C-alpha cells in the first residue's frame, strides 16, 4: 500500500492526522508531563518528596537528551512540495503550542471546522491561571490567535497575524469547558478579516477580531467556500 502524501498548504490548521505509533507515545509522554506540571502547582508536599521527584525528572530528561531532533527544514521541505509523510504532518501539528497533544505546554485546545464556523474547546487547569481561579488573558489571546488563523482553512493562501484585537468581557473560569467560535468576515487583497467569541458556562467572556496578511498574493476563497462571498469584499 502506498503511503498517503501530505502537502503543507492542504493541511487543515490545528487538526491532527491519526498518530503513528511513535506519535502516540510522544502524546502519551507529553500528557504525563503536562499532568505533572498541573500537579506541581501549589503542591503541598514535603521537601524530601520533592527532592526524590526532582531526581526522577532529571534522570528522565537525561535519558531523552540521548536522542536528536528530526529536522524542521527537511520536514517542511518535503511538505511544501507535497511529499510529506504522515510522520512529517504529525511533527508539524502535534507540537502546536496550545493545540498539540504532544506539547506538554498544551491543555490541549481542540480545533475543528463546523461548516463555515471554526470551533475549538478546551478546559484550562491551574497552570493556566491569571486572576485567582480564572484563565490568564494572554492564554486566551493565544488561543484566539490560533482560532482566527484557522479561518485561513477557507482560503487558498496562508499568512501571519497582522493585528489581533481582544476585548475581555467577563473572567473565564479554570476547570470549566471553554468553547470558541470564529468566522471569516471578509477578504481584501492580501488581508483576511475574521472575528471570534469565547463562551464559558453559557456566558460570552471574550470577543476578538483580527487581520491576517497573506505571505504572497491575494487571499482567494476555496471553491467549496465560494458562498462566503458577501457584497464586493470577499473575492
Ligand atoms: C489552529 C492552529 C493554527 C496555528 C497557526 C499558527 C498561527 C501563528 C500565528 C503567529 O504567531 S504569526 C506571528 C505574529 N505575526 C508576525 O510576526 C507578523 C510580523 N509582521 C510582518 O511580518 C509584516 O509586518 C507583515 C507580513 C504582517 C506585513 O508585511 P508586508 O510587507 O508583507 O505587508 P505590506 O506592508 O506590503 O502591507 C500589505 C497590506 O497589509 C496591511 N498591513 C500590513 N501590516 C499590517 C498589520 N500588522 N495589521 C493590519 N494590516 C497590515 C497594509 O496596510 C497593506 O494593506 P493595503 O494592501 O490595503 O495597503
Summarize the structure.
The radius of gyration is 20 Å and the shape is flat.
Question: What is the topology?
Answer:
Blueprint: H1 21-40, H2 47-64, H3 72-80, H4 86-93, E1 110-114, E2 117-123, H5 137-149, E3 159-168, E4 177-188, E5 191-200, E6 203-214
Antiparallel strand pairs: 1-2, 2-4, 3-6, 4-5, 5-6
Helix pairs in contact: 3-4
Bound molecules: decanoyl-CoA.
Decanoyl-CoA is lined by residues 13-14, 96, 99, 111, 145-146, 149-150, 160-163, 189-191, 211, 213.
Subcellular location: Cell projection, Ruffle membrane; Cytoplasm; Membrane
Domain Thioesterase: 133-206
InterPro entries: HotDog_dom_sf, THEM4/THEM5_acyl-CoA_thioest, Thioestr_dom
CATH architecture heading of the largest domain: Roll
User: What is the CATH superfamily of the largest domain?
Assistant: Hotdog Thioesterase
| Helical proportion, percent range | 25-40%
**Global structural class:** alpha+beta
Shape designation = flat
Would you report the number of β strands? 6
What sequence of helices (H) and strands (E) makes up the elements?
HHHHEEHEEEE
> Any ligands, ions or cofactors bound here, and which?
decanoyl-CoA
Please report which band the strand proportion falls in: under 5%, 5-15%, 15-25%, 25-35%, 35-45% or over 45%.
Answer: 15-25%
Mind telling me the C-alpha Rg?
A: 20 Å
Task: Please give the domain count.
Answer: 2
Top-tier CATH class of the largest domain: Alpha Beta
Helical region count? 5
Largest sheet features: 6 strands, antiparallel
Low-confidence stretches: 231-235
**Biggest sheet, strands in spatial order?**
1-2-4-5-6-3
CATH topology of the largest domain: Thiol Ester Dehydrase, Chain A
- Name the average pLDDT: 95
Separation, N- and C-terminal Cα atoms: 40 Å
Amino acid at each position: 500500500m502506498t503511503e498517503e502524501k501530505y502537502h503543507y498548504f492542504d493541511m487543515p490548521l490545528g487538526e491532527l492526522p491519526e498518530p503513528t505509533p511513535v506519535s502516540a507515545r510522544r502524546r502519551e509522554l507529553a500528557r504525563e508531563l503536562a499532568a505533572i506540571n498541573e500537579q506541581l502547582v501549589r503542591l503541598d508536599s514535603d521537601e524530601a518528596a520533592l527532592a526524590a521527584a526532582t531526581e526522577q525528572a532529571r534522570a528522565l530528561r537525561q535519558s531523552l537528551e540521548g536522542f536528536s531532533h528530526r529536522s524542521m527544514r527537511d520536514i517542511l521541505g518535503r511538505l511544501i512540495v507535497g511529499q510529506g509523510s504522515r510522520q512529517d504532518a504529525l511533527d508539524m501539528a502535534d507540537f502546536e503550542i496550545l493545540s498539540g497533544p504532544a506539547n506538554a505546554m498544551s491543555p490541549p485546545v481542540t480545533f475543528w471546522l463546523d461548516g463555515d464556523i471554526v470551533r475549538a474547546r478546551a478546559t484550562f487547569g491551574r497552570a493556566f491561571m491569571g486572576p485567582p481561579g480564572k484563565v490568564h488573558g494572554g492564554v486566551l489571546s493565544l488561543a484566539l490567535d490560533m482560532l482566527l488563523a484557522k479561518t485561513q482553512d477557507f482560503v487558498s493562501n496562508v499568512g501571519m497575524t497582522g493585528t489581533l484585537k481582544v476585548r475581555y468581557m467577563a473572567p473565564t473560569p479554570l476547570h470549566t469547558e471553554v468553547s470558541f467560535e470564529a468566522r471569516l468576515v471578509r477578504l481584501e487583497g492580501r488581508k483576511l478579516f475574521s472575528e471570534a467569541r469565547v463562551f464559558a458556562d453559557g456566558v460570552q467572556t471574550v470577543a476578538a477580531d483580527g487581520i491576517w496578511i497573506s505571505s504572497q498574493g491575494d487571499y482567494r476563497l476555496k471553491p467549496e467556500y465560494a458562498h462566503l462571498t458577501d457584497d464586493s469584499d470577499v473575492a
